[in-house]
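Support request from a user on the community tier.

User writes: "When I paste my structure tokens into the form, the page sometimes reloads and wipes my input. The last time it worked, I copied everything first. Here is what I submitted, just in case something in the input itself triggers the reload:"
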């Protein structure tokens, strides 16, 4: 991913936090015909002393499971908030642009065994059911039922060997124009605009 130096974020903790908030990513790999294929899936995100670890699963009906087993490198893309930035907000002539946060994570895949697959699914369900009024669990669905469903999927772990992230938040603007950008985004008021305004404030300690 092309990232100008002043937009790069190499802080593993901040990257991990971003990926956890935006854990529905795109898994990209090369198939046997050397064609790029991708699957949109949720990930469970954790960290160790080597960086970010991702676990996920795909259906065995999806041809991509064959390519990720080949021990070749895969790429997972996570996208976050983004917003159009009008140059009419500046106190000088310039071109419009787009502010955004995104991460590209590279690594090779290790296929999980049955016990590890259960743990992965449990972590994924528990993470997202925590927001529900009447949460379900692996246990409430019934072990026999879940294990039958598990036969149709392949779960995997990816230790990230390379992490790239772009936190493009108007870092090249001075204080006056930053305040103009934040005010305009907050005035726009949609979810993405408000999220980018908040991210700019955090980045600038405002």
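"...and here is what came back when it finally went through:"
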């Amino acid at each position: 991913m092309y990232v100008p130096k002043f937009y790069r974020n190499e802080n593993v903790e901040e990257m991990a936090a971003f990926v956890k908030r935006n854990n529905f990513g795109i898994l990209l790999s090369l198939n046997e015909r050397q064609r790029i294929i991708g699957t949109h899936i949720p990930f469970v995100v954790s960290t160790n002393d080597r960086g970010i670890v991702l676990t996920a699963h795909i259906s065995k009906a999806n041809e991509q499971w064959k390519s990720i087993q080949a021990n070749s490198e895969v790429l997972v893309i996570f996208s976050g908030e983004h917003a159009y930035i009008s140059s009419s907000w500046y106190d000088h002539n310039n071109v419009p642009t787009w502010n955004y946060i995104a991460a590209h994570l590279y690594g090779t895949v290790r296929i999980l065994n049955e016990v590890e697959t259960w743990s992965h699914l449990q972590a994924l369900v528990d993470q997202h059911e925590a927001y529900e009024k009447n949460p379900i669990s692996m246990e409430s669905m019934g072990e026999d039922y879940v294990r039958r469903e598990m036969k149709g999927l392949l779960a995997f772990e990816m230790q990230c060997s390379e992490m790239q992230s772009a936190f493009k938040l108007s870092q090249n603007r001075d204080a006056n124009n930053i305040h103009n950008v934040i005010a305009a985004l907050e005035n726009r008021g949609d979810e993405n605009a408000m999220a980018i305004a908040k991210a700019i404030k955090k980045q600038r300690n405002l």
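Agent notes: The reload is a front-end session timeout and is unrelated to the input. Strands lie at 24-30, 36-42, 44-48, 51-59, 74-85, 97-111, 153-168. The domain at 5-172 is CATH 2.30.110.10 (Pnp Oxidase; Chain A). Escalated to web team.
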